[in-house]
Specification:
The complex is a heterodimer of chains A (696) and B (444).
Chain A (H helix, E strand, L loop, with lengths): L5 H28 L2 H10 E6 L6 E2 L8 E10 L9 H8 L3 H15 L5 E7 L1 H8 L8 E10 L6 H4 L2 E3 L2 H6 L10 E3 L2 H5 L1 H5 L3 E7 L5 E4 L15 E3 L3 H10 L5 E6 L6 E7 L12 H10 L8 H4 L9 H11 L13 E2 L7 E2 L11 H7 L2 H12 L7 H14 L21 H8 L24 H12 L3 E3 L4 E4 L4 H8 L4 E3 L5 H16 L14 E7 L7 E8 L6 E7 L9 H14 L4 H12 L5 H27 L11 H7 L16 H4 L2 H10 L2
Parallel strand pairs in A: 2-10
Antiparallel strand pairs in A: 1-8, 3-4, 3-5, 6-7, 8-9, 10-16, 11-12, 11-20, 13-14, 15-17, 18-19, 19-20
Helix pairs in contact in A: 10-21, 13-15, 13-20, 14-20
Chain B lengths: L1 H7 L4 H22 L6 H7 L3 H21 L2 H25 L1 E3 L2 E8 L2 E3 L1 H18 L8 H20 L3 H6 L3 H7 L4 H19 L2 H18 L1 H6 L2 H28 L2 H10 L10 H6 L10 H13 L10 H4 L11 H33 L4 H25 L17 H19 L7
Antiparallel strand pairs in B: 1-2, 2-3
Helix pairs in contact in B: 2-4, 2-18, 4-20, 5-6, 6-7, 6-19, 6-20, 9-19, 10-13, 11-13, 16-18, 18-19, 19-20
The chains are: A alpha+beta (696), B mainly alpha (444).
Chain lengths: 696, 444
């Protein structure tokens, strides 16, 4: 028996060839027609490491750093690699429970996929970093990654500098072309936001080859595709940190705002909105908690009243009324009115004046010094009823044009985000209010002439107005940043609008002298007599704006020295009463500090006194009181829960003392002294039930 | 000189050349897998600690073994075939007693010095010899069912033992002997039934059970319709069709789920499912459930996915020698053994793979040519066995790395790292060469 089935050898060969053909087809499919595998291989093996550049520093006018960068550490997690992790140990180290752990992992996967690292716990404190660092080997998938964070050595100017925070999805969508990624930090407010592009620098990317356990094997293609990180550029601002600190101190326990501008350049020397906050609370790992608390605070510490607060300017408007009349040629500095205690030129409206003695408004200087309501009502009517413009509407429009030229009723384009334009009402507003264009005249809106009615201005607009008066007719748009390090053309273009001179009036210097003299007289024998700047003459105007919601707002505007002014200022203290009482001393000390670089010994005592005066409205005080009570109640519940769990010795119950340490309010809000109430009284019914359930 | 002549006389040098080339490619591939930029490869090579230097040592051992085999007389193999087979089976049973657990299969016998022997590898040779011996016996008539069954038992006994050792992949290789039997006269029906059975299992995995049942019933009705004339004459065909239909539906409905849930391990079922792009629910698996209390971990097709990425990223020309990131980053597990083809595919691309496959195919065809020129049934059967074993290894291994077949865990002949595999293929081939060299002498 032998080769019977020789043909079957051929069949076997065909089977072999067929299988090899199938393999070849699959190889063609994999290697030639599928591009996804190449991409998958790169995703596997190429590790892109973003090299964050140092963010630019912001300096004050004397080159003192308002903020600095320090290294902090983020705990990063790559969810796909966390298998075999000692979750319990990690949770114990971080002081979280496993539910929280799972929640964060889920969040990380949702935000940044399973294979990319996301932040698990941001900005660890030094102690936490040390603890974690020696245990990192237990936690595969977790790494500590360096990040540069801001610190603020002067603890000041939080609202101006803004803060940086991790970008969210909305931000990423908005700035798509800027190449941000999840986990990046960006300026979210203040100068950090306005100058984000300058400060952030350029991120570098290094590509590495990594192995299956994410260990770096070496640079990819010898660094051919790597880019270098370029550090952010520094900003040089006009802020004077000492004046800023002083102003914040003086405005403590008050709600209000102060803005000081150098009239020669438009550079802002100080800008405070009170209540303010220490910018350091928005760095570090407590950032989110503090931020949440401040957002919910009824006194709005995050709200910059200097650019957003709208106040009727009151008497501080009067110099501007005079300028309009002078520029239009309606009056001369020697123009005077006879006032006997009020303005009666209109039927139905009678504007009272503080003064009765004859001759207190005999000329412009006197009228300003005495803040004569009749005088300014009169010249306001002159401006509105100007024959040149035919009728009230046209006259009003011209007057509004003046207001806008002086920076009222429009934004000044300061380099902070979300500036408000306040309000100089349009004719349509009045048409609607009075029921028709023909149904109102200069008498109907008479109190506009003394800075009341529907007009409002922000503190920065008032300060800018002082700049115009101090400069005798021109101003530079108020701004913080004077120059940028290594300015490029783009940077110069960005700052261009702050370097352009705006000429507003064409009034002779002698006319201005009358305004200046009148305002100087205010400080010599007028309402601001009590406020002196040692060694300097200055010009000022107080204001008391009527506030329908409560006590009058106290306003004060000034510039100093009288000749060659170097500082123009506006201070508003809400519910502060007379301008000379609350706002004037604050402005006085700020000017003194700026001009003399120091404050006299007697002044220092006064500074302390002023800073302690509490002018916070009762409603807000009550709010804080309620919040504190709620917190006490919460503590009580937590204590009850802790007592119920006393069996678990490793869970050290939180004592009331530690909680109270943590719960001191941010900033220096003086709240009512804490009253230790019996916490159970504050519990509502269901909480009581819960507590009862917790006990057995 | 005389001796030298007697060794080399009649030896097929083509196969020796192919053998050398393949071993060289293998060492090169293992080198690619092991290579690290930051280590001095010359030093580690000479140190003998790395896998590629070990493989070279194995190759050296293989040269000695090959020489020894060529020095022997071919009669030795026919004479001792059954004894060898018995020894192989004993060794395989011995692993249950003295076996060492490597990668979850207790199929290794420790030899000392860090080397281990896998009897199931060696046993392939003995099975081939035993089969050849059986079929070449004067009294064997392979057309008889009795001898066919005997041949089947010889081939499948080691397969059964290796399944018991959790080496399912190796067991598959023993089915290669059915190709040999086909050549020797086994009815093609057996192969067709086997193939149909595999096709049925695959379609069970791919198609919804109810849909498949409907398709099968429809096919049966169609057959009955087309053959209605013949059926009228004889009812036999009707019964046959009904029987086939009944078994198919039975297999699809009950046998396949039973096999996956009760016979195979969870990971094996999952691998099979994942090869066809399906997920296997391990909670159905009785064996895993019995074995461990905790919920069975869901295995994924990570190996195959990474291997496909490696091969796919090679593209047409490949990424170049030592430039593959998948290989350098050790993304493909077991890349020096079972998944060695991935490093080749990544580095040299489609062109490299094609050339490599051509070498293999050339080797297989060469062996078949050798087989057909044998005068003795023993040599022919043995040669076909060698070709079939190597073919099954290549097909299963490469299909696994390119994701065409579930990963059974068989090596790539002469390429994969591993002494047992290399030595057994060397012995397999060189016994063939010895037999071939003596083909003129024997007339049996």
């Amino acid at each position: 028996m032998s080769v019977f089935n020789q043909s079957r050898g051929g069949i076997i060969q065909i089977i072999f060839a067929a299988v090899f053909l199938i393999i070849t087809f699959q190889l063609i499919n994999l290697q030639i027609f599928s591009s996804k595998y190449k991409l998958a291989a790169e995703n596997n093996a190429i590790f892109r490491k973003i090299v964050y550049p140092d963010r630019g520093i912001i300096f004050d006018r004397k080159k003192r750093a308002l903020l600095e960068n320090v290294i902090s550490y983020d705990l990063m997690v790559t969810p796909a690699e966390t298998k075999g992790n000692d979750t319990a140990a990690l949770c114990q180290l971080l002081g979280i429970d496993t539910t929280e752990y799972k929640k964060r992992i889920k969040e990380a996967i949702f935000k940044n996929t399973r294979v990319k690292p996301s932040i698990f716990e941001p900005l660890l404190g030094p102690e936490m970093f040390a603890k974690l660092n020696e245990n990192m080997y237990k936690f595969p998938g977790f790494v500590l990654s360096e990040r540069s964070v801001r610190t603020y050595p002067y603890n000041t100017a939080g609202q101006l500098l803004g803060y940086i925070a991790e970008v969210d999805t909305t931000y990423l969508r908005k700035y798509k072309e800027d190449g941000y990624e999840m986990g990046d930090y960006a300026g979210m407010n203040g100068l950090e936001k306005t100058y984000e592009k300058v400060l952030m620098g350029q991120r570098g990317i290094k590509r590495f080859i990594r192995d299956n356990k994410s260990r770096i094997q070496g640079p990819y293609e010898n660094g051919l595709f790597d880019t270098v990180a370029i550090a952010g550029k520094n900003l040089y601002t006009s802020i004077d940190v000492e004046v800023q600190q002083l102003a914040e101190k003086l405005l403590q326990n008050k709600i209000g705002s102060a803005v000081a501008i150098n009239p020669r350049t438009g550079g802002i020397i100080a800008m405070v909105s009170s209540p303010s906050y220490n910018p350091n609370v928005l760095t570090g790992n407590q950032r989110r908690k503090n931020w949440g608390r401040m957002v919910l605070d009824t006194a709005k510490p995050m709200y910059n009243r200097a650019i957003k607060g709208q106040y009727p300017p009151g008497s501080t408007f009067k110099p501007l009324g005079a300028l309009v009349a002078l520029d239009e040629g309606l009056i001369t500095p020697s123009y005077g009115v006879g006032c006997f205690g009020g303005y009666g030129g209109c039927n139905g409206v009678y504007v009272r004046c503080e003064h009765k003695n004859p001759g207190h408004a005999a000329n412009l200087r006197l009228a300003l010094a005495n803040s004569c309501n009749s005088y300014f009502s009169d010249i306001f009517r002159k401006a509105i009823d100007n024959k040149k413009y035919g009728n009230t509407i046209e006259g009003y429009l011209k007057w509004k044009e003046y207001m806008n030229a002086f920076g009222l009723g429009r934004t000044l384009e300061v380099d902070l985000p979300s500036e408000d334009k306040a309000n100089i009402p349009d004719t349509s507003k009045y048409n609607k209010f009075f029921g028709g264009a023909r149904r109102w005249n200069s008498c109907s809106v008479l109190t506009l002439g003394i800075g009341q009615d529907k007009m409002t201005a922000t503190p920065i607009q008032m300060a800018n107005l002082m700049c115009i008066i101090a400069n005798k007719g021109f101003y530079y748009a108020p701004h913080f940043v004077d120059s940028i390090e290594n300015e490029t053309d783009a940077d110069t273009a960005m700052l261009g609008k702050y370097r352009r001179k705006h000429i507003v009036t064409h009034i002779s210097d002698s006319s201005y002298k009358a305004v200046h003299d009148g305002m100087n007289d205010v400080t010599l024998y007028g309402t601001a007599t009590a406020i002196k700047i040692p060694g300097h003459q200055y010009c000022a105007k107080t204001g008391t704006a009527q506030n329908p919601h409560g006590k009058n707002h106290s306003l004060f505007v000034a510039f100093a020295p009288k000749d060659n002014p170097r500082i123009a200022i506006a201070v508003v203290v809400e519910n502060g009463g007379y301008g000379s009482v609350a706002a004037a001393p604050i402005a006085g000390f700020m000017m003194e500090k700026y001009l003399n670089d120091t404050i006299s010994t007697a002044g220092l005592v006064e500074v302390e006194r002023v800073s302690k005066v509490n002018l916070i409205p009762d409603a807000i005080k009550r709010w804080y009181y309620k919040k504190d009570s709620a917190r006490l109640a919460k503590i009580a519940i937590e204590e009850a829960a802790a007592k119920a769990e006393t069996n678990e010795e490793n869970n050290k119950p939180i004592t009331e003392a530690t909680l109270e340490n943590n719960s001191t309010p941010i900033g220096d809000k003086n709240t009512e002294p804490k009253i230790k109430t019996k916490p159970s009284l504050l519990l509502n019914e269901d909480k009581k039930k819960r507590r009862a359930n917790a006990k057995p | 000189m005389n001796k030298q002549k007697s060794i080399s006389q009649g030896v097929d040098y083509t196969i020796i050349w192919l053998y050398g080339i393949l071993i060289a490619i293998g060492v090169l591939c293992i080198f690619m897998v092991e290579y690290r930029t930051d280590t001095n490869w010359v030093q580690s090579f000479l140190g003998g600690k790395t896998n590629y230097s070990k493989q070279l040592i194995f190759a050296g051992v293989c040269v000695i073994i090959a020489t020894l085999i060529l020095l022997t007389d071919s009669k030795l193999f026919t004479a001792f075939a059954n004894l060898f087979y018995a020894l192989g089976i004993v060794l395989m049973f011995a692993t249950f007693v003295i076996g060492k657990n490597i990668n979850g299969s207790k199929s290794w016998i420790p030899l000392g010095g860090g080397f281990n022997l896998q009897p199931v590898e060696i046993c392939k040779i003995f099975t081939a010899l035993a089969l050849a011996k059986l079929l070449s016996r004067q009294e064997t008539d392979f057309n008889k069912l009795k001898s066919q069954i005997l041949a089947g038992i010889i081939c499948l006994l080691p397969a059964v033992i290796s399944i018991a050792q959790h080496e399912a992949g190796m067991a598959l290789v023993y089915f290669s002997f059915f190709l040999v039997m086909f050549r020797e006269g086994l009815s093609p029906i057996v192969l067709i039934i086997g193939f149909s059975f595999v096709a049925l299992i695959i379609s069970t995995l791919l198609i919804e059970p109810d849909t498949l049942a409907i398709i099968l019933s429809a096919a049966a009705i169609l057959f009955i319709y087309f053959f209605r004339r013949i059926i009228k004459k004889s009812k036999g065909l009707l019964y046959l069709i009904l029987l086939i239909w009944f078994t198919s539906v039975g297999i699809q409905r009950f046998a396949v789920p039973f096999i996956f849930n009760n016979v195979l391990e969870c990971y094996q079922s999952a691998r099979v499912y994942s090869a066809f792009g399906k997920d296997y629910d391990c909670s159905l698996n009785q064996r895993s459930a019995k074995k461990s209390e905790k919920a069975p971990k869901k295995p994924d097709d990570y190996n195959v996915r990474q291997s496909k990425i490696a091969i796919g990223s090679g593209g047409f020309w490949g990424r170049g020698f030592l430039k593959g990131t998948q290989t350098r980053g050790k993304y493909v597990p077991e890349q020096h053994t079972d998944f060695i083809f991935a490093s080749l595919g990544e580095a040299f691309g489609f062109v490299g793979c094609f050339v490599f496959l051509s070498i293999y195919l050339f080797l297989l065809f060469r062996i078949i040519r050798l087989a057909e020129r044998q005068r003795s049934t023993f040599s022919r059967v043995y040669a076909y066995s060698v070709a079939s074993i190597i073919f099954f290894h290549i097909a299963f291994n490469i299909c696994m790395t390119i994701g065409l077949f579930p990963s059974p865990g068989v090596t790539l002949p002469l390429i994969s790292y591993g002494g047992s595999s290399l030595v057994s293929f060397t012995i397999l081939l060189f016994i063939l060469l010895r037999l071939d060299a003596d083909r003129q002498m024997v007339l049996r």
